[in-house]
Write a structure and sequence with these properties.
Layout: E1 4-8, H1 11-22, E2 27-34, E3 37-43, H2 45-51, H3 77-94, H4 99-112, H5 122-132, H6 179-218, H7 220-231, H8 236-245, H9 252-266, H10 274-278, E4 281-286, H11 293-308, E5 313-317, H12 327-336, E6 340-342, H13 346-355, E7 361-365, H14 375-384, E8 390-397, H15 402-412, E9 419-423, H16 432-440, E10 445-449, E11 458-460, H17 463-473, H18 488-494
Parallel strand pairs: 4-7, 4-8, 5-6, 5-7, 8-9, 9-10
Antiparallel strand pairs: 1-3, 2-3, 10-11
């Protein structure tokens, strides 16, 4: 029997080499991963047929049955088998192998012969010869069980020399794909799924563009209103949501009134100053650097002093990091006749609050840091861990983009925000962005600041005025950022999967 070795990078290539040289009926003896690739041992099926042939010259066994008819002084076949068996057990015992290891080896040998089906007639001759030699006939019985595809197990255990001329089985082996091949297949599947998703998104985007293109033709007023919202700074998601809810066949004025009423209904504002100036409490203004916290704190302090007097107001600043950071508020406090307490940590804040516990209202100005600075979480923790309830008002810069405003809210909301104050309204070219974020996050708008004057440039948030101004800025025809009518379907198609405002309320008369 001529056993050949084939080596390749992986089992697929090695199996291909076997099939090419030995044919489809090649018998696989072993398939294992080795350093640098995969190794397969195989031989031709014709070699098996030569092993079971009746010709004496082709018998592969070292001891033939006819040899046992010679002189009685020579060892019998049974004694030879028993001797080899004892020698094998002795070697196993001396090498440190346990009975479980031997059983595992026997099981692997049995698995290799589990695929034998129809044995040739010679098995009966062998059986009769075995009976004469006191060999259990069951050893030569074929195993009657369904054929299974098994991978040949290789073992480092010393193999036993064959002593019985039994028909060799035809081994049918399933090549197990190596881990590298499996990972490559999984990567190919992942790439294919990614390409399918890209194709799906492209098709859906084109269908959405076609849908909005048809809406422009059927209802040009709705398309006009959609362009106004987008130009005014409202997000495509909210603009699409409003356009889809808008009744059909409205006039331009009716569409404008309907849109204004819907936004007005969903924008939460403070009806009067009772919550701050009359009810009192502890309020802190938080937000990124340069948003106008200190100036807004001074404006609120001035409004309170004019209504209730300086003796009932307390001022605290946590801006102890910048050189002279608290001096601006100290100047305002000196003008108003209110002492300013500077704190640097949670313990100082607790002491200051105890000293000011008799005050009707306490305003806390905080240090400004980037929304992506880790100090934000430390600042929120300091304000939340006191034994007094502190209401947090987030200052939102109207000149920022919707993405930046959303990032700021996500960074500062921590354990919750009680409301917001819109600042720098006088510097903003459009204000739909800040209104959109306030509606989306369900933030109550307390005040709007539109200048540097203290306290004149601080006003209660009037939703009707804010919405009217936002839509009016959206009708600017000379803006280079205004979308053309033909461009609107592309924007809607690209943002079709963006979530709108949850639980968007409709106007009472809509």
């Amino acid at each position: 029997m001529n056993i050949k070795r084939y080596f390749a990078k992986n089992s697929r290539e090695a199996l291909s080499m076997v099939k090419k040289e030995l044919g489809e009926d090649a018998v696989i003896l072993s398939n294992r991963a080795v350093d640098g690739g995969n190794e397969i041992l195989a031989f031709r099926e014709a070699d098996i047929e030569s092993m079971i042939s009746d010709e004496p010259s082709r018998k592969p066994v070292r001891h033939r049955l006819e040899d046992f008819d010679e002189a009685a002084s020579e060892p019998t076949f049974l004694s030879y088998v028993n001797k080899n068996h004892r020698d094998y057990r002795g070697e196993v015992a001396s090498s440190g192998f346990s009975d479980s290891d031997e059983r595992e080896f026997d099981r692997s040998e049995t698995d290799q012969s589990a695929h034998v089906r129809n044995l040739p007639p010679k098995v009966f001759t062998q059986r009769r010869s075995a009976e004469k030699l006191s060999i259990d006939p069951a050893m030569l019985e074929p195993i009657n069980r369904p054929a299974q595809k098994n991978v040949v197990k290789t073992s480092a255990t010393k193999p036993v020399v064959a002593t019985q001329a039994a028909p060799a089985p035809k081994v049918i082996e399933t090549i197990v794909t190596s881990n590298a091949d499996r990972e490559a297949s999984e990567q190919q599947i992942a790439n294919m799924m990614s390409e399918i998703r890209i194709m799906r998104n492209a098709i859906e985007s084109q269908l959405t563009e076609m849908s909005w293109g048809s809406i422009q033709k059927r209802d040009p007023v709705k398309a006009m209103m959609l362009g106004t919202l987008l130009t005014g700074g409202f997000s495509p998601a909210l603009s699409r949501q409003l356009a889809e809810k808008m009744p059909a066949n409205l006039t331009q004025k009716e569409a404008m009134n309907w849109t204004q009423a819907i936004i007005d209904k969903n924008l939460i504002t403070m009806p009067d100053e009772t919550d701050i100036l009359d009810k009192g409490g502890i309020f802190t203004l938080i937000g990124p650097t340069g948003v106008g916290k200190t100036t807004t704190t001074a404006k609120l302090a001035a409004r309170f002093v004019m209504k209730h007097g300086a003796s009932k107001l307390g001022l605290i600043t946590t801006d102890a990091y910048r050189i002279g950071g608290h001096e601006q508020l100290r100047i305002y406090g000196k003008i108003l006749g209110v002492m300013v307490h500077a704190v640097k940590d949670e313990a100082d804040l607790q002491i200051a609050l105890e000293e000011l516990k008799g005050k009707h209202t306490i305003l806390i100005d905080t240090v400004g840091v980037s929304q992506r600075d880790r100090m934000v979480s430390e600042q929120i923790a300091m304000l939340s861990n006191t034994n007094r309830k502190i209401k947090k008002l987030l200052c939102l810069n109207a000149t920022n983009t919707s993405e930046t405003l959303t990032d700021v809210i996500n960074a500062y909301k921590g354990k919750g925000l009680d409301g917001c104050i819109i600042t720098k309204l006088d510097e903003a070219a459009i204000i739909g962005n800040v209104l959109d974020v306030a509606i989306r996050e369900k933030l109550r708008v307390y005040y709007v600041a539109n200048g540097q004057r203290v306290p004149e440039d601080l006003h209660l948030a009037n939703k009707k005025v804010l919405v009217h101004r936002a839509l009016k800025l959206g009708t600017q025809n000379n803006s280079p950022y205004k979308l053309a009518t033909s461009e609107i379907p592309f924007v809607m198609g690209a943002t079709r999967n963006k979530p709108g405002v949850a639980h968007l309320m409709e106007a009472d008369h809509a």
